[in-house]
Specification:
Low-confidence stretches: 82-141, 272-281
Structural class: alpha/beta
Strand order of the largest sheet: 3-2-1-6-5-4
Mean pLDDT: 78
Number of helices: 14
Shape: flat
Radius of gyration: 25 Å
CATH topology of the largest domain: Rossmann fold
Largest sheet: 6 strands, antiparallel
């Protein structure tokens, strides 16, 4: 999160930058940041079309190259805003796409007027800029249906417990909400030792921080995944921190930062192990009472986006997922399954091979034969061919 490399596009509208960011799952989220004007040098650069904005302590520098569309291009590498060694200097942008570009050259002084640097601003980028889509509408369609409910709870400092199957996108959704709310994001999986939450002091007297400690003291969204697989002693500590607003860490008592937020997630509603999730523990009511409980299942809009609107594939995956649930089968058909099928199909691999390695991976022939192709499309036909061959 501290150095976002997958920025797709930055556009300027008024005093704000709108940044399209793509995650590893291929989902795009647009975040808005106000341009910084904290120094005279930065304000001078803005007159020449160079702007900077901050995302989670990192400064990003972009220059405006198309005033009509607001299109911006990266002008220098990101800088850690909290680093003492950071500079407000300017670097020339070099084209790496092979497109011949025309520039105007300007000179300006930055910081305290002691450094003079050249700025090259592109004159004619319009023909290379694709038409801008309504990103807010586009992203709204691919956000999880519980996105706004979760975001509202976090904004109002209400702890959230998400319940859903593995691979439903809890982690990414919370990262997106953290970006949206300008909160740092801290993640910890199921905690089996108390020190993984509290931190510890080593033999040399040095305190080792945890993700929970950073979120608690510096502010941010702390996400405890698989809470129903964490030991009860840890949950008692978490309850105390939420209830009291302070916590006794090994290096002393700390007050909760005003921007400290908590979200937990699990595969069960605290009821203990079941056929699919055998390692889950029963959560006591004192723990559950601290949280609002939100059901977080697979979302069809997200699946269609990952499948490039391939409704046949999404229908097929949803159907076999339903059959597996009803039959009590221990298997998962997640977003990753859809992504893998889509990529392999685009690469030209035959569908039967794709289903074997990306959908029914590791399943026995008897297990595969329990599915039936009730919806009747090409993926069902390929599945039945696999069953006949078995």
């Amino acid at each position: 999160m501290k150095n976002i490399k997958n920025i797709l596009k930055v556009t300027k509208s008024g005093d704000y930058a709108f940044i399209d960011i793509k995650n590893n799952n291929g989902i795009v989220v647009t975040v808005r940041r106000k341009f910084r004007v904290h120094s005279a040098g930065i304000r001078e650069l803005q007159k020449l079309g160079v702007y900077c904005f901050e995302i989670q302590g990192i400064l990003y520098w972009y220059q405006l190259v198309d005033r009509e569309k607001g299109y911006m291009v990266k002008h220098k590498e990101p800088e850690d805003f909290r680093s003492e060694e950071r500079t407000t200097g300017l670097l020339r942008k070099k084209s790496s796409d092979g497109v011949e570009r025309k520039y105007k050259t300007y000179k300006t002084k930055v910081e305290k007027g002691s450094v003079e640097l050249e700025l090259k601003v592109e004159e004619e980028p319009k023909e290379h800029e694709p038409e801008r889509k309504d990103t807010e509408q586009e992203n709204k369609a691919i956000q999880h249906k519980q996105y706004n409910t979760i975001k509202t709870c976090i904004e109002n400092n209400i702890p959230v417990y998400l319940v859903g199957e593995a691979g439903t996108g809890k982690n990414y959704t919370l990262e997106s909400i953290a970006w949206d709310l300008e909160l740092d994001f801290y993640f910890t999986n199921s905690v089996q030792q108390e020190y993984k939450l509290t931190g510890f002091i080593d033999a040399g007297g040095k305190y080792h921080e945890t993700e929970f400690y950073k979120a608690f003291t510096k502010g941010g969204l702390f996400f405890l995944d698989e809470m129903d697989a964490s030991i009860p002693e840890v949950l008692v500590l978490l309850n105390a921190a939420i209830a009291n607003g302070y916590f006794e860490f090994p290096n002393g008592r700390k007050e909760a930062h005003e921007d400290f937020r908590v979200v937990a997630a699990g595969n069960t509603v605290g009821s203990g192990a079941d056929e699919l999730y055998t390692g889950r523990l029963v959560l006591d009511q004192a723990t559950l009472d601290r949280f609002v409980i939100i059901e977080f299942d697979y979302d069809r809009n997200v699946e269609l986006h990952l499948a490039n609107n391939n409704t046949e594939l999404v229908d097929f995956v949803e159907d076999i997922r339903r059959q597996a649930r009803n039959g009590g089968m221990r298997c998962t058909f997640s977003y990753r399954c859809i992504m893998q099928v889509t990529k392999l199909e685009q690469a030209g691999m035959d569908i039967k091979t794709i289903l074997k390695i990306a959908v029914f991976k590791g399943m026995s022939k008897d297990s595969i034969n329990t599915f039936y192709g009730g919806i009747g499309n090409k993926y069902c036909d390929a599945m039945m061919d696999i069953q006949r061959a078995a």
